[in-house]
Amino acid sequence: VLRLCLAKRWRVNYGAHPKRKNYQMAVPFQAKDVAAERTECGHPDVGIALTFVHYFQAGLSKQQLRNTFEKLKHLSDSKAKATYREWVACLSETQRSGIGSLDGVNLEDPNQFTHKVFPAFHRHMDVICFWLLKLILSVQAKQFSKKLLSTASDMCRSQDLCPHWRAVTTGFSGTDDLSLVLPPTIQQKNIKELELTNGVQLMRILKAENNNYHSLLPIENGSSFTNQILEFLNTPNCVKENTNVVLDAGALVLNMGNREFVSTWLKLRPDMQAGVFFEGNNICVITLDMSEDDKSLPLGVSSFANDMSSCLLYLDDIHTRGSDFKLPLHTRALLTLGKGLPKDKFCQAGMRMRQLGLGQSLVFVASPEVDQILKKDFFTCDNNASKLYMSNEVMRSFHYGIAKVHAILIWTLSNTVKKICDLIPYFVSQFICTLHKASAYNKLVSNKSDPFDKFTVKNLAISYVEEEVLELHKLYGHSRGIDNLPSIVYTMLKRSLNSDNLVVHDLVGDTRGFNITTDSIEKMPMSATEQPDSDLKFLNFFSTEIQSRVKRIAAEVHRPCSMLDEEQERELEHELEEEMHVELPGPAKPLEPHVSEGLIEVLKSCSRSGLCPLLCKRHLAPLSDIFSKTSFAQTGKQHFNGGMVFVTQDFVLTVEGKQGLDNYVKDIRWIIKPRSANGKGDGPFILISNFEAEYYARMLNRMIFNRRKKSVDISGILALYYFAPLTRLQQPRQFLTISSFDPPPIIHVLGGSVHADNELQEVIQRFLGICPYPGDCGEGDEKWNEYFSKGWIERDGFVPDRTKRTVLSKLFPIMTGSNEKWNEYFSKGWIERDGFVPVLSKLFPIMTGSNDVNICPFTSSPVEFLIKFLCNVRYLGEELSSSKMGKLLGSSEIETFKKVEDLA
């Protein structure tokens, strides 16, 4: 996919459609700056890749950039600021001045937006990626489950293929070169009077006066192709030879529009009075005295309509075919040669000079890429490629000074051959679709019952539609190598037509011509596996003839086994929308807040901290009860069943209802725990509601007041703490230095502390039992991949109990970037020489934690559960994508494991 996309020319083969307002993805182009109407890339990954490449080169418009900043400011504050800091990190000091922070960007200030914001960001790759991912691809890169195809083969119906079809195509427009990939059901029959046209064109082009060739310099070694062409046109020789016409068949004039190019050229030629060019489909004229703001004149109403001797003419890529001008007899035209220029387009462009060979002549200008190919394979007699393409007569022409025009013509022929070979798989694929339709229609008509009953017609419709959304193994499960075209076609027919009981013939060594007649079908021998049905006989014959044609014209041609360059015109059927009145459930009925009886019992009896765990287990609920009436009930109980964290009944119950209460899980704000000298303690930790916290706060106030009057011992009472989850970047963990404490990691995880600092992040990482991918492109990555291949680490980084000691001990020095700690623990006997940890409970505190609340309790990976919980219950989806917690869980957009200070 990448090679195909990079081989295409921007603004020539693909680009954004300038007139489709609601579609900003890249589409195929017919010619330079001419998009194919209603056409899209058939392969989804090709379309997405070309879209990125287009905007990386073209940049964003002012409105697109404005929409990007509006979308950015709709994100959460920390997410938006973190994203903007990444954008400005690669700007220079001059560019960053005045807009170094998001708060300094004022979209309402047109002067700042035009002179500071737009120049700094409209080509910024991160900004473009943000715009595409957030605003474009999520809406426009869509597929439907089914599609109904209509191809060229459907237009060329044949009664030989389906006796019940009526042939509707009687003629078409095209060139002889592509007749080999016409549908097999139609034959090209040229008008006898025009059979000599191709030969006459070639004779005129091959004349000696056209043996003029010039190559351009690479852009990195000189100016743009456009400027080089203008410089060449202004040389004395070109002026003397009346080189007044540019036929841009190779699409080399990319840096200027048609009018700008003609205006610049006209300034270099003061001896000419006017310049003629196409503006859309209108032929326009500008004169030397016109300014850029003046409107151009239609050629038909100007004084130059009947006499163009004093005019310069520029024909862009799309108009080098189908246009006609009365040019002076001794005019010479510059014809550009671009990558992949086929023979028919080359001849048509050259014949814009109607008197070519009778006084008019050509000079060829090639791009550096084409010049390299011509010099390597076509301009040298001794080259094997030259001998392959050139006949003896052409080889002898080198001695008569007309070899270059011969070589250029043969180069265009080689491009035509390549184009035909590239089209063969698509020609076969389209006809396979028609064969499927013919087989389905024959079955419908041959049905003995009513062929147009609802059930039968439904089956016909099912047979006609195809899958549009393909699984990855269907897109990329094919062979990655190359094969010869007959083998590729044979495989395509065998895979696609066997479903209809069609016989696919192996035509190894068969080089029959392609000539379909009813007599030839009747004479076709039937194999033992064929059925005597006439429609099946026709289908088998056509599939055989397709293979015969491919074998005859491309027996030794090799191509990739994939079809990535497919194009399609999508037409959506506007159906009547069914109006539905959706009755949303009524508002939930809140429960009356109350102080839980279990909490009262604990507060009354818990005078000594040693009794608290027993009292909590007897009177309070385990932490897993907060999931009891949610969609996480089963997984929540599995992961968080046990421990030293308890909840009250009022904390669990919020509204009436039995199930589906995901939106009513209370935030963790108030915690009760026994007092301890160092403020850390092992728990228990009691999560209470706001109402209960208010009740207990009043109780504490009364006790403190009574203590002042009387000598009352309050050392045994439980302490009340406020908890604030770290949901914002750089939010301090302990903002109350006197009364704050370190809650266990399970409270931070379920509370939503996605922006933990480095110290807390390590504690959470050990608690979850996750060993993230180091991403250091060194020893850490190698070890991680090794342990993953051995099954010691799961795909999301979770380390099972059976391998936890081995993995953590061996990856610890790599993750910390130093062996000092490892050596320290080895000297204490906590780690053996080979890295084995004999007893997990004795493992150094920095890895497992000294407290039970910090040891990983999970027997299976909690990653998927936590992502859903934090996004759907805590509503931290946007914050998660830009946080270190999101990186740890595998849902972050941060590319590397950055420190919090680096994001500041």
Task: Show the helix and strand layout.
Elements: H1 2-7, E1 14-16, E2 26-31, E3 34-35, E4 39-41, H2 44-58, H3 62-73, H4 77-88, H5 93-96, H6 110-121, H7 125-140, E5 146-148, H8 152-155, H9 197-205, E6 213-215, H10 225-233, H11 236-240, E7 243-247, H12 258-268, E8 274-279, E9 282-287, E10 297-298, E11 311-315, E12 332-337, H13 343-350, E13 361-366, H14 368-377, H15 384-389, H16 392-396, H17 403-445, H18 454-464, E14 465-467, H19 472-476, E15 482-484, H20 485-497, H21 518-523, H22 534-553, E16 558-560, E17 567-569, H23 597-605, H24 612-619, E18 621-622, H25 633-639, E19 645-647, H26 649-652, E20 670-674, E21 685-688, H27 690-709, E22 718-722, H28 745-751, H29 758-768, H30 779-789, H31 801-816, H32 820-827, H33 845-848, H34 863-872, H35 877-881, H36 884-889, H37 900-903
Features:
single chain; 904 residues; Rossmann fold; 8-stranded mixed sheet; 5-stranded mixed sheet; 22 strands
Mean pLDDT: 80
CATH class of the domain at 207-366: Alpha Beta
Gyration radius, rounded:
38 Å
How far is the N terminus from the C terminus? 38 Å
Q: What is the approximate shape? A: elongated
Number-wise, the strands total 22
Structural class: alpha/beta
Helix fraction by DSSP (H/I, runs of at least 4) = 40-55%
CATH fold field value of the domain at 207-366: Rossmann fold
CATH architecture of the domain at 207-366: 3-Layer(aba) Sandwich
Largest sheet: 8 strands, mixed
Proportion of β residues? 5-15%
SS summary, helix count: 37
Poorly predicted runs: 398-402, 499-532, 814-818, 839-852, 894-904
Which strand order does the major sheet show? 6-13-12-7-11-8-9-10
Domain DUF3645: 17-51
Keywords: Hydrolase, Protease, Thiol protease, Ubl conjugation pathway
Catalytic activity: Thiol-dependent hydrolysis of ester, thioester, amide, peptide and isopeptide bonds formed by the C-terminal Gly of ubiquitin (a 76-residue protein attached to proteins as an intracellular targeting signal)
InterPro entries: DUF3645, OTU_Deubiquitinase
